[in-house]
Description:
The complex is a heterodimer of chains A (110) and B (117).
Chain A: E1 9-12, E2 18-23, E3 35-40, E4 47-50, E5 64-69, E6 72-77, E7 86-93, E8 99-101, E9 105-109
Parallel strand pairs in A: 1-9
Antiparallel strand pairs in A: 2-6, 3-4, 3-7, 5-6, 7-8, 7-9
Chain B: E1 3-6, E2 10-11, E3 18-25, E4 34-39, E5 45-52, E6 57-60, E7 69-73, E8 78-83, E9 92-100, E10 103-107, E11 111-114
Parallel strand pairs in B: 2-11
Antiparallel strand pairs in B: 1-3, 3-8, 4-5, 4-9, 5-6, 7-8, 9-10, 9-11
Amino acid sequence: QSALTQPRSVSGSPGQSVTISCTGISSDVGGYNYVSWYQQHPGKAPKFIIYDVSERPSGVPDRFSGSKSGNTASLTISGLQAEDEADYYCCSYAGSYTWVFGGGTQVTVL
Amino acid sequence: EVQLVQSGAEVKKPGESLRISCKGSGYTFTNYWIGWVRQMPGKGLEWMGIIYPGDSDSRYSPSFQGQVTISADRSIDTAYLRWNSLKASDTAMYHCVRLSGWHYDLWGRGTLVTVPS
């Protein structure tokens, strides 16, 4: 059970869009529509922002969106804002009530 | 308030045992799986394992199977993570998390475990 693959960092200017990829295999990302995304600001606990690939919980701005194609899921942040600067982690169900996280992506707002 | 309250930071010696706790409140504790997530200093999140407090059914990541034990006491709405013999490489922040559907909707603030080498 290897960690899902994410880019180590992405950056963008305020107002731009950035997309974070999350690549797994057919027995995790590719096998289930149970990918979730978590945002973590420094020194804070993570907070879920996307679940079931593309569902957004109440209170999360609609500039956050998720999608999946094959073994790769993606998180897009549209209209980047300063407060979006944080670490982002994907997580996928991997069968038999086990899960796997991605390595994390640092988002920098230039 | 719906929350997971974790026990305080620990500093232990290599070879010592340790059990940290996670108490759920504001919801029916036995209706939700509780998981544990490790975050080593400056590193990412790692899924360790999960337990259903209703019947103590538990599952582990292969990376953590045999290294830790996850348990729960439903009478006091508390889940535990235990080590029998700590190593310096166990130094990390440990978060307990609540499973809702297929994602983790509630996170504890974390328990920092330090094992100086």
